[in-house]
Each structure stands twice: as C-alpha cells, then as structure tokens.
Amino acid sequence: MKQYRTHLLVCAGTGCVSCGSFKIKEALEQEVRKRNLQDEVLVIATGCNGFCERGPILLVQPDGVFYQQLKVEDVPHLVEEHLLKGRPVKKLMYVPPATKEPIPKMMDIEFFKHQRLIVLRNRGRIDPEKIDEYIGFDGYQAMAKALTEMTSDEIIAEITASGLRGRGGAGFPTGKKWQACRREKATPKYLICNGDEGDPGAFMDRSVLEADPHAVLEGMVIGAKAIDAEKGFIYIRNEYPLALKRVEIAIGQARDYGLLGKDILESGFNFDIEIVQGAGAFVSGEETALIASVEGRIAMPRQRPPYPAQKGHMGKPTTINNVETLATVPNIIRRGSEWFSSLGTETSKGTKIFSLVGKINNTGLVEVPMGISLRDIIFGIGGGIPDDRKFKAVQIGGPSGGCLPQSKLDLPIDYESLTAAGSIMGSGGMIVMDDKTCMVDIAKYFLNFLRDESCGKCVSCREGTQRMWEIVKGISDGKGRLSDIDLLEELATACMDASMCGLGQTAANPVLSTLKYFKNEYNEHIKKRKCSALVCKEIVSSPCQYICPIDQEASSYIALIAQKNYEEAFRIIMKDNPLPSVCSRVCHHPCEADCRAGESGEAISIRSLKRFVMDWADKNGINYVPEPVGQNREKVAIIGSGPAGLTAAYYLARKGFRPTIFECLSVAGGTLAVGIPDHRLPKDVLDKEIERIRNAGVEIRTGVVLGKDVSIDKLLREGYKAVFCATGAGKSLKMGIPGEDSECVLHSLEYLRSVNLGKKIPVGKRVCVVGGGNSAIDSARAALRDPDCDRVAIFYRRTKAEMPALAEEVDAAIEEGIDVQFLVAPVKVVTKGGRAAAIECVRMKLGEKDDSGRRKPVPIEGSNFIYELDTLILAISERPDTSSYIGEGDEIRRHGENIIIDEETAMTTRPGVFAGGDNVTGPNTVVEAIAAGKLAAETIEKFIAGQPVRREYRLNRPSVYVQPWILSEEEADKARRPERKHIPVAHRRKNFQEVELGFSEEEAVQEARRCLRCDLETEDAKKAIGASK
Amino acid sequence: MIEFIMNGLKVRAEEGWTVLEAARFYGLEIPTLCYNEGLTPWGGCRLCLVEIGERPKAKLVSSCTYRAEEGLVVRTDTKRVWTARRMMVELMIAMAPGSKQLQDLASQFGVTQVRFKPKNEECILCGLCVRMCAEQMDGRAIGFQNRGHKRKISTPFDIRSEECRLCGACIYICPACQLRCQGPQAETVLCNSCLTMDPSCLDHFDDLQCWMYDAGRCGTCVREKPTAGK
Q1: How far apart are CA A301 and CA A293, in angstroms?
Q2: What's the gap in Å between the CA of A304 and the closest CA on chain B?
Q3: Closest C-alpha to A779, from A754, A811, A759, A797
C-alpha cells in the first residue's frame, strides 16, 4: 500500500458539505497536484467531525492540526504554508472566544478534549465510502468474533451484561429486547434499524450513518445473529440523501466482501439488508408505525401488545433498534461488556451522542459518557452561550422532551435522572436557550410541531395537541386568561393518559415542563400582557414602545416624521410624556437598545428624532395642553418636584384633581434642575416644560421641607385626599476609605447642585472624580467647564463595558479631554493640612463573575499609585433619605431608606400614601421616575374614587396606525443612522452651552424612514392598515 | 380460557378476546364510539379507556384494542378513567356539537361545559365510515388524508371515487353527521337537556360504586336539571 507523508481529512458531513466542503476538497486536490505533492499528500473526505458550527473543517494528519471555516481562496496559501514550508496557518485555526489565542491541535480544543468517542470513533478519521478504511480500524472484527466464536445466547448475554439500553429514547435494555425476539418460535424473523430521526435540532443518527455506515451494518449482523434473523431493514428518512448514499455504498461493498449475504465468513449464517426510505413523518420513529411504513402502509402506531418481538414486520417476530444502539454493539463485542459497563452511571452505561444546538457557541455533535452534567456539556464542551448572554433553559429529547432550567444544570445525565426532572433522554437533541428565549413561545413551537406530526388517530393526541397549541398561542398573543393554565394542565394530563403511543403520551411534555419551571412567564403573559424576552410578536408589537416605561409610541411618531407630519408627532409624544424635551436630551433610551433595526444594522436614533420634533414645536410655537377631563376634584399633595412628582401632578391635573407639589429647594425640577448640568439639559428647556405643567393646573410651592414645614399627617388632615412621595435619592454614599471626610472632598450631588444653582464651589486646577455613573461623568464634565480647572480625571474600578453611565456620555467625556481610567480603585485620600492633596489608588483586573453576572474586579498587588489633585469628587452612588419625614413606628414600611410600595398600585403600607421614583427604587433613570409618576396618578384616581386600586395592563399598541413609508431597495441600502452632532470640543470649555445639537429636518426624515415599523406586524395593525386603504 | 381481574371480580375470557369484549360479556358498561362489532377495532375515540395494572405503574388503554391477558388487572370506571373520558367527550363535542350521540355521552358523563371554540366540522375522524366502506362494503372509496390537525376523511385526490357505489353505508354508520341533536346552545355548545350523570361517589372513592358494577345504570346519581357552567 502506498504511503503518504500527510493526510488531509476534509469533513464531508452534511453540515460541512452545505458550507462547501466538497469544493474545498477539489481545491485542495488541485493545489496539491499543482505543487506536485500528489505522491506525498492524500486528500480524503471523511464523515462528520461534529464541530458543525465551524465548517468546512480540515484536519491535517499526522500533525493533528485543525483548520476551520475554510474558503476556497484560503487553499493555495494553506498548502504552500503548511505543506511546503511546514508552517501551520494561524489565521485559519480555531480561536476560542474567551482567550482569543488560536489553538493549532484538534485535541487541545475544548469541544473535542472532553468527548469520549466510542460510537463516533471513526468520525473524521476514515473515508466512510471505503470499507478498507473501516476494516483498517478493527472494523468487522466484532462481527467475525460473533459469527465464528459466539453463540446467539452468548451474544445476548454479553450485550445484557454490558447494560446497553436503547439509544432511540425510551432506554429499553437491548439485551432484553433481543432475548424476547429470540424466544419467539415463528420464522422468519426480522431486524430493523430505526434511522427515522425527525426531531427539530437532532442529527445524531444522520451523522453516524454518514460517518461510519459500516459500524451500523456490523451491529446489524451481530444483532441478526443474536435473534436469528435473515433479513434486515435500514429505515432512513428521505431528507437524508447523503446518509442514504453512503449506506447504499456500504451495503454494496459489504456484499462484495462477503460480509453480507449468504454464508457470511463461511459461518453458514445468512443475512442481508434492504434500505427503506421514510417519507418524513415524525411518528414513523414509533416502532409499530415504522413497521407499518416498512410494510408500505400509512405510518400509524397500533396497540401494543402484541409487541414487535411477537408480531412485527409481516406479523413475524421483529427487533427494532436505533442507529446509535446498533453502532455501539460492535464495540461491546470487540472490547467486552466489562469495559463498556465501566463507563456511565449505575443504570445507564456507556456513552451517548447529543446534538448541541441553539444558543450555544460550539454547535455540533458530541459523544460523552453517561452521567456527565449538563453544565459540563453546555459550558465545557459547548463553550457557553454566545454574546455572554444568560443561560435560561435546555430542551432535551426533542418535541416530546422537556425544558430544564438553570437549577438543573448540575444534573448528571442518565435515563432516570432526566425523566425525574421532567424531560426525557429521547434520541439526544439538546437545544440550548438564552434569556432572549420566551418559554411560552418555545412551548408554542413544539406544540405546533406536534399538532402537525401527530398521526391523528387518537382524539386525545390529535385534538389535544391542537387545542393546547390554540391555548398557548392565545397566551402568546396576549389573549390568555388565568383559567387557561388549569385547562392546559388538564388537557396535558388527558393527552398523556389517554393516547395510545409514545408520541401522544409525551406530547404534553413541552407544556408540562415549561409550566413546571417557567410558570411565572405564563403568568406574566396572561396577567401583565408582557413577554420579557421580547419574542411574542402580538404582545411586543414594536419593541421601542414595548420597552419604554412610559409607553411612548415611538413607532407612531417616527412614522409621522417620515410623513413630515410633525404636529401630529408632537401630539403623540405629548400624550404619554409631560417632559418630552427633557427626555429627548437625557433619557437612557432603552428603545434604541432593543430596536429591531439594530439587530442586523444600526438602531434608529429614536431619542434624536424626539428631540427634532420638540425643537420643531418650540421653534414654531406649538404647544399642547389637553383639556382636563374632569373639574374641581379633590386635592392631592405631592412631595418633590422631580420627574416623578411633576408627572403625577400633571396627569392628576388633567383628570381634574387639584395637585400641589411641595418642593424643599428654591427651584422646581428636582434632579432635572440641580442634578444635571446645563451642557446636557439647558435650564430654559426644563423651565418651559415645568411651565406647561403649571399651566395644566398644577401648583408648585418651593422651599417647603417635608418633616419640618409640613408632614404627611398634617397634609392628610388639611384635606389632601392622597399624598404622593417622590423625594428621590439625594443622599450620597461614602466610600469607606481613610481621609474621605477631609476638606476638598466633595460629593457629586453636592457639587452638581452648587453648579446648577450658580453657587460656585472653587475646585482648583486638578479635579479627580471617582465613580462610573452618570453623576460621575456629569460632575467631571461640569468641573472641566470651570474656568479655573485645567485637568479632570475619572477613576472607575471596572471596565467601560460595565460602566453604568451612558456610553455616549463616556465617549463625550473622553473627547473633551477627561482622563477616564478604568480598573482603578481608590485606597485612601492623602491629606495635607486637613485638605485632600492626592489620592492613592490601586489597579484592578477582572476576576470571576459575581452574582450580578459582572466579572468582579480584584486588585493587582503592588500596583498602587498616587494621583495629585486639588478637589476630589466622589460619585459612588446615592440612596434615598426618607428618615426625615417617615418616623420610626410609622405605618409606612421601608427597606432601609427605600420606601416599600405595592408594585401594582404604587401605594405604601399606609392607605392613601403613595410613593414612586428613586425613593422607592434607589438611584434610577428619569424615564423610570416618569413611569412611577404615571402609575401613581392612575391609582390615586382610583383610590380617591373608592374603586379597587389596581394597575391595568393593556396590550402594547399604538393609538394610531400610520401608513408605512416604503423605501426602495437602493434607498434602504444607502440609509445610515446619522451621527449625533455636537458643538466643537474647543467651544465647550469655560461655559455650559448645550453640547448636543439636533437633527436637521432632512436628517430626521431620512432617519425616520429607516424604521422597520415593527408595530405593523401585529394582527390588529394589519387589520387597521388594511381598513384604512 | 384465560383468567383475569375486572373491577375486582375474577373473570374468564376466551383467548383472543379484547377487554371490551370480555366486559360486555359480563354485562359491564364501557362507552364506545369508534367501535362497531362488525368492524376491526380502531382505538381512536379513546372513550373505551380502562385502567390496567397496579399503581403507580397503572396506565390507561383502549379496551377495544387491548387483548385480555392472563392475570391482567382491569378497572373500568376509576376517577382517572372518567376524567380522561370527560375530556375526550369535551374535545369531540367541540368538533361536532350537532351529534346526538356525543350530546348523550356528554350527559352520561356529566360534561357540563365545553371550553374550546366549536369547530362544527360534523366529523370526529372516528374512521367508522372508512372501515365500513372497506370491510363491509368492499368499497375502499374513502380513507384518511394527512396527519395531525390537517387530517380529514375524503376520497383519493378529493375527486369522486369510482369505487363508490353510493351505498350510503358511510352515512348510516356516522355518529356525527346523522341524528342531529336540537338542543345545543351557542354559548355552551352543550345540550345537557337529557339525564346527566353526576356520580358523587367519585368524590370519595377511586372507583364508581354502582350496584352490580353496572356503571351509570343504577340511576341514583342522575340529575334532572344540570346546573349550567359547573
């Protein structure tokens, strides 16, 4: 036989073939010939390597170097570098996401390192279309042993002793199955190999048939000898053309070699195999249905008993084994049952193949010993969840399996443990889901599959799956009722109990397991009409509006801008937001983070579009205060004039109440007025908004301190029917390092307040800010605008990715010349004569992830340094200060300083007293505070009217449907998100001029037309738009 | 002859009898819908469910297709059986509320609400017509099409079959499209005007406590006017 110095093993499993591995093979052969290497290098097409994610794959042997995601263009370079010059090509190697360092050898890659290959031992190693290569790796030895040295009983005893259980899913002991068939007197007997693999996301059988067809044939001959069958069938799905082709070739070769047919190996044993192609019904995997299909009838299960072992194919004793089971058999016969049973757990022996798919870094096929934990498979071999998202669930066992949550990650996998946890082993499909997966949607998906694939004979299964799907679809459409969950459970039980075959008996599993572990998601969909994973389309409608805490109809006003109808856009904005100009400048815009346009390109610049409308209205003198709906209703007291207080007052006034805001400072606006400097939010913008709120009928009394000038009791006595506390979180937290109480150490809120109120605190030339939130950035940028200040630095102990401040604010700070240093933590304040003179810091590195999912910074020993300064501003965090007005023993309960409210009503533990905003949540965003104000207004009205105080949840829908603006393909290609414009950096020193500039009309309209109009994807919208045509 | 236990009684049956045949031989009532003595048992309607085996491994099987075996333990009217049967009736009534046979079954089993949107398909896919045509009329003019929720009964390629002799046997045997019940109300999809069984014994016992094991025939737990929406 000819010797080659190098073998190039090109993966030719279906996954790699679909990525073009045959083209790679051709190119390699061509290149090898071109370089005159054909006598030294051999190119071979092998079966699936399993790492399907990375196809096309090339393995260079004997070096063991692993190349992935090859393109035809890479081939010449690769041949020249690796084969001629002996330099492996780094850029074509696998790079793990964590370390970013290319790994040359296959066996050093996490995906391969932890696998235990028995069934798949020949994958990626032999050419599946060449029987000699299989024989070269001990192929057909087991068969020879079984036929020449062992009796049928010995074979069965060996398999029984090994503890092998059926790999098709149910896990029936293979030895017992063979024994049952052997006992039967009737002849002839049949052996059927079940290669009908219909579950979404499963491709174990296909891969085995493609990579090592002879192993299956060998297992079949051994099984046939054990049960005394002369005829066998391999049932292969029509959808597996490559597997079919390779099995055909293998059978032909085996016959030619005398390994199939009459008198195999002169042992006197006859056995031949016929291929039967299935037509793709999932239910054909059920053994009695499969027999019906082999016989040429409709694949419909029938009542067992009689079992196939008694009456199977053509009414004769028949054994049906799964592909993987049969491929395991030769290994057991060759290496002994003791070796095999040493692997695995008490009840489940050997290895199992899983197809790892879904939200996982390393998609592919893995073979692992039984008893391995889910965590090892998903996070070890599978490499975890892409984009560092959170693991939510893993669906095991195909449509009839179940979803297991995070708490089951350490479960050692075997047949029993999975069943106990509410799933099944099934054939081994493993679908990993992250937090962007909605479990109601998953249940809907699998029920949809099952209602299609039920054979339709039993009422319980056919109608059961259909009705369960209808109910779950209703829930996912936001039309669910609470009684639905009981009905689902009832139906699921009936479907399981009353159905004849395994399909119906397990069809309820997707519902039952999601109900078991994720009932809160069902409840959320039903009670709140919310889908936190943002998946259920009818509920989410447009994500921008859905995610907005105050339901701003972003999609509507964007659509109106696209139509150049700015006045209507202004009305839409004003309807839900009393502080739109403020929001259009300082909102943290979660709408843009979840914008669907951002998933494949750039998110729509929603905040800037709002700003454009507000600027336009301001310029054109358009103002809009809606007529109040009621008149001269009860008095309501509101404490604090921040965004929450202003909003609650505005909406109460619109309902006809007489709200009075009590503000302790001399100006109204709370944090908006004294916490955010003018370069972000100019005073006149805020004042105009507050003026509008006053005009709506709100009285604002400044300089009134709660706890000193007024008290809650007094207000209620004076005839205020309800009190809304929105006092914010105004107390700065300390760091707990030595020297922080010395002179020249300021807290950010104190500093920002002085800047905003025009009471200048001298900061000197050098300012250092510690912290990473918006108030840290605001303080730093404000200090930079101080005429005396020369340089400003920010120290933050984590990295930019973890920084709570808005990314664009951080960028602007860096742009303005602020020295932002990440991974730096202060150790102590160095004082000179009682004044802070410097700060000692230590550099940090990121360690393990903590409970919040963020990687915890740990100090680097000996990296301390001193930073000299004139003023130190601490911006660690803030907390509410409620002790001053809520006394000990008061009816209003608190958690620390935070007021406890009922989230559904915003009411505190004292009836009639409501709270919202930062004094409930701790430091939070402006828009969340506005949302709290809106909720309070809604529930206060109900409370005063004596109605049950409960929050109402409605489906997220725009109030108007605007015709979409259709961009031509060319326009859509060209459209880009415009850069936000700012005044030049040079103009930003020593003044507080607003930095961000708005869009021009042209920019705004162009940008608005880029919107994907997710709001039009709901059924309601389609109807509304259809009707308006 | 084989011996097995049915509702606690030791019974004997011919080899090859189904549990349903044995039960009927002993005069025990098991409801059926897709079963007909002249046709091959089908096991599709799941009304003839009985519970076999010992708990916790006990399971429900359709008695029309399950062969009696030596030593088998069968219970024909347990709570579990009744719960499943009720759900089957509810599911089928939602398919064909006009069927008198189904309305009678609903009354018999105390099904007083239908929580599914009625389909009014006037067919419950029990397959009696298909078997009737093939087995008794030697016609094979109709058969099942598709699977799952798309399943229907029709002629090949939905065109008039040359095998069909218009004998009408399919219509004769149909439980859904013949003998319309005039009672059902649009809101409830149920008639419930007939006698409605409401066995209170199932609240206290696992099995029906009927006199002489004659499920539902003793009459003591029949309500005359059902309360709607129970």
Answers
A1: 10
A2: 8
A3: A754
Mean of all residue pLDDT scores within chain B: 86
Task: Transcribe A640-655 into DSSP letters.
Answer: --SHHHHHHHHHHHHT
Query: What is the complex's ipTM, to 2 decimals?
Result: 0.91
Give the pLDDT of residue A201.
83
Same domain, A869 and A884: no
Quick check: A456 and B125 CB within 8 A?
yes
Dist. CA A710–CA A362, nearest whole Å: 63
Q: What range does the domain containing B141 cover?
A: 128-173
pLDDT band at B214 (very low <50, low <70, confident <90, very high): low
pLDDT tens-place string over residues A655-710 = 999 999 999 999 999 999 999 999 999 999 999 999 999 999 999 999 999 888 88
Residues of B (3-62) whose Cβ lies below 8 Å from A? 42-46, 49, 59-62
**CATH number, domain containing residue A480:** 1.20.1440.230
Same domain, A398 and A292: no
- B95 to chain A: which residues are within 8 Å by CB? 463
Cross-sheet strand order for the sheet of A190-195: A261-264, A269-278, A231-237, A190-195, A318-322
Q: Does one domain contain both A796 and A721?
A: no
- Report how far residue A9's alpha carbon sits from residue A583's, in angstroms, rounded to the nearest whole number: 59
pLDDT at B180: 61
Do residues A234 and A215 lie in contact, with contact meaning Cβ atoms separated by under 8 Å?
A: no
Looking at A897, A917, A945, which one is the last position of a domain? Answer: A945
User: A65-81 burial by CB neighbour count: b if 16+ within 10 A, else e?
Assistant: bbbbebeeebbeebbee
pLDDT tens per residue across span A505-521: 999 999 999 999 999 99
Choose, out of B78, B83, B149, B150, the residue to mutate when testing the contact with A (most A CBs < 10 Å): B149
B102 close to A (CB below 8 A): no
Task: Give percent above pLDDT 90 in chain A.
Answer: 69
Provide the domain count of chain A: 7
Q: How many domains does chain B have?
A: 3
As a whole number of angstroms, the distance between CA B127 and CA A704 comes to: 82
Query: In this structure, are residues A364 and A50 in contact, taking their beta carbons and an 8 Å threshold?
Result: yes
Residues A828 and A911 in one domain: no
Has residue A180 got a pLDDT over 90?
yes
Residue of B nearest to A488 (CA): B115
Domain that holds residue A890: 635-730+880-945
B112 inside domain: yes
Indicate the burial class of A657 (C-beta count within 10 angstroms; 0-12, 13-18, 19 or more). Answer: buried
Please identify, among A414, A434, A454, the residue that sits at the C-terminal boundary of a domain.
A434
Q: What is the pTM of this model?
A: 0.90
Mark whether A330 and A460 lie in a shared domain: no
Predicted pLDDT at A1029: 44
